[in-house]
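Morning run. Coffee first, then this:
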Amino acid sequence: MLNKRILIKLVSSNPINTMKTKALGIFVMMLLISTAGFAQELFKVLASKGTNKAVSGGVESGLVIGKKLMKGDKLIVAEGGYVGLAHASGKTIEIKKGGSYDVATLVNEVSNQNTSSSQKYVNFVSNQMTSGNTNLAANRQSNMSSTGSVERGGNYKLYQGTRMEVYNTDKIVIQWMPVDKSKGFYVTLVNMYDEEIFKSETNGNSITLDLSQIDGSKLDDNSAKIVIVAKNSPELKTDDSYFLTFITGDKQKKVTEELAAMQQFNSENTAINKIVLAGFYEENGLYLNAMEKYQEAIALEPEVEDYKTAYDQFLKRNELIPAK
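And here it is:
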């Protein structure tokens, strides 16, 4: 009988077996390296204001949207700075106090609750914000090329297109391009019989509607037409092509359930959570709800240019800026 040690030696000396063993060893090694790298990734940067930096392996680098922060990294936040982070689990945190932070210790800010919904939309927002950009703020001027323009005559054009779905237990923003010399507007929602179901007025070129206050029993086919008229020029108004359609049935149920799960976990009234909610609504095709969340985020952190630029990009990406 062959000695076991000799048998092992004979098998391992076979060139084919040796190649397979080496190949397997390389594959296992690569897998271990990949797994170890993934496990160490703790946070992703979603917004940054100020000269904030990350230190990895003793090397400093500026923060850019989408940058990954690993377990051994340090985060240096400038005085008066701001950093919005998303944990790998989907939990978001904001850092507004200047100083140096060990990235690993920031995990203490993260809850252990189930975050699958939040994680999905954090990734969606991050991908949209980093698509084709390394510095959002540097590109903001080009992103804003159409948002501040004024029509020289003609009727009003809404930013949201003609027929838009909305989730009716939230607020939405209706925004239109201002017409030259207009001074205030009446905004009305009517059903198919031109019965008024909502009316308000504003001096700006946008209005926020609380949809929970609208009487759904007066709606026909779950839709309402939007009519905007200039106070000083009644002949200047929207045409008959702008409608809100309130989602119902399975889609409403899905949105309600996912929204409840997300808000249970990321319930803080922070700008970064508003941005994630905006991503949630955008992914579900509810652009008016998304617009409201972007504007809420900007109102909470008006000095963070990344959020303003993300909003501009959202409008362009979904063709919500009307053509001139």
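The first helix runs from residue 4 to 12. Good start to the day.
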